[in-house]
Structures are given as structure tokens and as C-alpha cells.
Design brief:
The chain is α/β, with parallel strands linked by helices. It has helices spanning 16-30, 46-52, 79-84, 95-100, 105-117, 130-134, 138-149, 155-158, 179-197, 199-204, 215-222, 239-247, and strands at residues 5-9, 36-40, 58-62, 89-92, 121-126, 162-165, 206-210, 229-232. The longest helix has 19 residues, at 179-197. Bound molecules: phosphoenolpyruvate. Residues 9, 166, 171-172, 210-213, 231-235 line the site of phosphoenolpyruvate.
Length: 249
């Protein structure tokens, strides 16, 4: 059976010392968890987080990377650099990167391919805006994002992907999709992945829900057939909330 997965996305929060303190407190609370417990920490915290998470079941990853191997790209970080310091996965296509940093689907596609080449698990984030949902364009948007962001990805590398459905209107707003709304989107995503990569691979991929997940809405989301876990922003910043979310798996 596929293991459920909970990823905390810390965004631009927590210094190195705060990171270490958090992981030391979290580790004993989640050591018997049924879920894979993952933290996407700031670049500056990755080395310390990997060290603090050694001998625990917490997996450390990054929140972004560049699509090139190296080059004159001031301020950017390559997949191979992340891999070398122990990051195991990378968030790609988060809506904050799309809206604030103008990342496009073709650019995200190049990052997905690079991450797979350099053996980092890409966690591809997709989702519709409020306006797109109101115009009944949710499925059209999800299908386009999946086709464009995963273009040229072969079946074998595709089996290493994680997909996060994050309706933009639910991120950091306190508005969660109802379990039924999320399940409809997840089932549609699984259908698109089946078309792209075949049934066996699509069934094996984890599709996480993200958007104002809290301890009190996680259990209901996890009842749904196609929801395999969560990508958690705000509620991943406190050990108490994050561990309570993990306990729901
Ligand atoms: C996110 O940043 O991916 C996210 C889902 O944030 P929040 O849980 O705060 O809505």
C-alpha cells in the first residue's frame, strides 16, 4: 500500500537555530507515524536540518531550484547543490513562485526534468485561481499545467513524481476546499496522469492536497480515496499543529 505523505512548506520562515529546535521537538512525536514526514526548509537551513533529522524518519527538501546545472545566475541554486547537502525533494511550481516570481509552466517543466536528472524528487504544485474556478475552468487549468509541466517526462522517471493540488484561493487564506471538492480535483488529476503515464504509474503516485490544512480539517480530507496526504504551509510552523496533522494519516 502507498504510504501517505505530509510535507511542511516553511516558506521564508525559521533561522538555522529555530530549524534545529523544531526538528528535535518534532522527531519523537512522529517516530511511529504512518506517514512520510517531510520538511521543505529555507536553503540556509538544509544542512542543519539534515543533520538534526539524521536517525529520524523526517525527510528534508528544498522549496525551489534553478533549471540549469550551473552558470552565471546570481542568487540561484542548482539541483546538484541541493542533492549534495542532503535534500531529497524540491517543491516546484508553487503558486507563490508562479505569481510573485513569474514562473511559467515551460520553465517549471525544465526544472522538473532537471530535478529528475539529478535525483531529487520533484513535488509539482498545480492549482486553479478563484476566478478560474468561478468560470468552471478548474479541470482545463489542471490538465494544462500537468501537460506542460510534465512534458517530455518518461514513464520511469514519472514514477518518482509527487503532485500537490493547491487551489490558489485556499493557500494561506483559511479557506479550505471541502473534502468533496478536493477529491473531485484529485480524481481528475489521477485521470490526467493515467492518460500521460499509464494506469500503473498514475495509481502509484502520491497526490497531496494543500491549502489551509489544519489539524481540524485533515482527518476528513484523508478519508477521500485520491487524497494521499498534504502540503502544509502555515500550520507546519508549530510543532503541535504539524504533528497533529501527521497523526491524522
Ligand atoms: C502552501 O504554502 O503550500 C500552503 C498550502 O499554505 P497554507 O497551508 O498556509 O495554506
Amino acid at each position: 500500500m502507498k504510504k501517505s505523505m505530509v510535507i511542511g512548506n516553511w516558506k521564508m520562515y525559521k533561522t538555522v537555530s529555530e530549524t534545529v529546535a523544531f526538528i528535535k521537538e518534532l522527531a519523537p512525536l512522529v517516530e511511529n507515524s504512518n506517514a512520510e514526514v517531510c520538511l521543505a526548509v529555507p536553503f540556509t537551513s538544509i544542512t542543519a536540518a539534515v543533520e538534526a533529522a539524521k536517525d529520524t524518519n523526517i525527510v528534508i527538501g528544498a522549496q525551489n531550484m534553478n533549471d540549469a546545472s550551473e552558470g552565471a545566475f546570481t542568487g540561484e541554486i542548482a539541483a546538484i547543490m541541493l542533492k549534495e547537502i542532503g535534500a531529497e525533494f524540491v517543491l516546484l511550481g508553487h503558486s507563490e513562485r508562479r505569481t510573485l516570481f513569474h514562473e511559467t509552466d515551460p520553465y517549471i517543466n525544465r526544472k522538473v526534468i532537471k530535478a529528475l536528472e539529478d535525483d531529487l524528487t520533484p513535488v509539482l504544485c498545480i492549482g486553479e485561481t478563484a476566478a478560474e474556478r468561478e468560470e468552471n475552468k478548474t479541470e482545463e487549468v489542471l490538465q494544462r499545467q500537468l501537460e506542460e509541466c510534465l512534458s517530455g517526462v518518461g514513464e520511469e522517471p514519472a514514477s518518482k513524481l509527487v503532485i500537490a493540488y493547491e487551489p490558489v484561493w485556499a493557500i494561506g487564506t483559511g479557506k479550505t476546499a471541502t473534502p468533496q471538492m478536493a477529491e473531485e480535483a484529485h480524481a481528475f488529476i489521477r485521470k490526467c496522469l493515467t492518460k500521460q503515464f499509464g494506469k500503473k504509474i498514475a495509481q502509484g503516485l502520491s497526490i497531496l492536497y494543500g491549502g489551509s490544512v489544519k489539524p481540524d480539517n485533515m482527518a476528513a480530507l484523508m478519508q477521500e480515496k485520491n487524497i494521499d496526504g498534504a502540503l502544509v504551509g502555515g500550520a507546519s510552523l508549530q510543532v503541535k499543529n504539524f504533528s497533529a496533522i501527521i497523526q491524522c494519516c
